[in-house]
Amino acid sequence: MKKQTLAATAALVLAASLGACSSGSDGAASGESAAPGGDGSASGRIALIAKANSAEYWMRVKEGAMAAGKDLGIEVTFNGPDTESEGDKQLNQLDSAINDAPMAIGFAPQDGAQDGAPRLMDKANEAGIPVIIFDTPLSSSDVPIATVASDNEGMGAEAAEQMAEMIGNKGKVAIIAHGEVGTAAARRDGFKNWLAENAPDVEVVDVQNGESDPAKSRDKAQGILQAHPDLVGFYGTDDDSTIAIADEVASKDMDVKIIGVDSSPDVITLLKEGKINGVIVQNPFGMGYKTVELLYKAAQGEMPAEKNIVSESLWVTQENLEDPEVQQVIG
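That's the ABC transporter substrate-binding protein sequence above. Prediction below.
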């Protein structure tokens, strides 16, 4: 995906999320919407199981989901493990959600839950519970009626295009991914494939998996920088990896261009300080809102018109950070 196309299409999704925000997103504590008229029964409840329950990105997804629940007058529960490396725990949460028989379920599978999820998708299907996957595709099951996710491969390609421009289309670059499958793989491969096809003089010298763990990601960054002191560009596929890269580059006082995916308060601070050169920011609020909205319609018998619904993204730098449309997405 070229940056011009990404920027243009983002406006459509932003318009929808701006409208959603105007309805209020104060939500309620512990994953339950303050839905007026919601009776709290299974027939009026939608359950979302996210990759994690406390990271900034997932809190924004939750805010969007709760806003949708409030607008629709239904209860929305939002759950997830403490970290994105607890696949078994996430599967147990999904199983419990199915046993509670909500009207519909949204599921964002962790890497470690990908293999075990199809069995539970079948269980939900047998119980007559419609399921929508959000954030991360689940390729191993045909049960979900739709997937709401960012164009992760396109975001990787956008990061590569921006990186190539920053480094003059030549030099050594490296990647720290936040996993080996799912969104991490798509963002990693989108980056590598774009460079291979469009910037042959840019060499990807190393790719490491930081497991979406700040400490592990920083250790990986340190090792790469020690092995490649002539590195000119560094790409992180999520906020944890991007922050780790920026911190390590700053500690070594190296001149390395840094591009990442996803926003958090720490990412924005580093961006303002010039320690990160740019980030591709998803619209988590819009993703949460859209997922609940589609699940509610599906529970009423109205299936999504498309199997894959793209939640668009924005390219954010110091220059456009204060733009209203950017501020709305990064919260």
